[in-house]
Design brief:
With 121 residues, this protein is mainly beta. It contains no helices and eight strands. It is extended and about 55 Å long.
């Protein structure tokens, strides 16, 4: 079974601008509906285009929505305009089961300088 991965640009699907005050959260519709839920599906935010905390949320009607939390703009509200570019999500499906092996000895690795905990790979 092959693992499939695709990325999707996500836009807001709202008719009027949405105003989010400091430390407030709002659920932003995207209009994207998940189909074929007989498979395992994992969604990841690859990149966000608005300066806020964004979390993927799936409604009972299988619509993907983005929870946006304004943690950066104290003096003025964050504004989500209609059809605004929100994020790029990565959709991964058909993942094989992962089996873990217990071990008592870990191999030594050399850390790189690419990021926190980087092995340089």
């Amino acid at each position: 079974m092959k693992t499939n991965n695709q990325s999707k640009l996500v836009y807001s699907n709202n008719k009027k601008s949405i105003f989010i005050n400091f430390l407030e959260r709002k659920l932003i519709p995207t209009g994207l509906i998940l189909c074929n839920l007989d498979k395992k599906i994992f969604l990841f935010l690859k990149k966000t285009f608005i300066k806020s905390i964004c979390i993927i949320h799936i409604e009972s009607n299988k619509e993907i929505k983005i929870i946006v939390i304004n943690t950066f703009w104290k003096k003025k509200p964050l504004i989500i305009k209609p059809n605004e570019k929100l994020a790029i999500i990565s959709i991964i499906y058909n993942i094989k089961n992962v089996y873990w092996n217990n071990t008592f000895i870990l191999k030594k690795s050399i850390r790189g300088n690419k990021s926190f905990g980087s092995t340089g790979i």
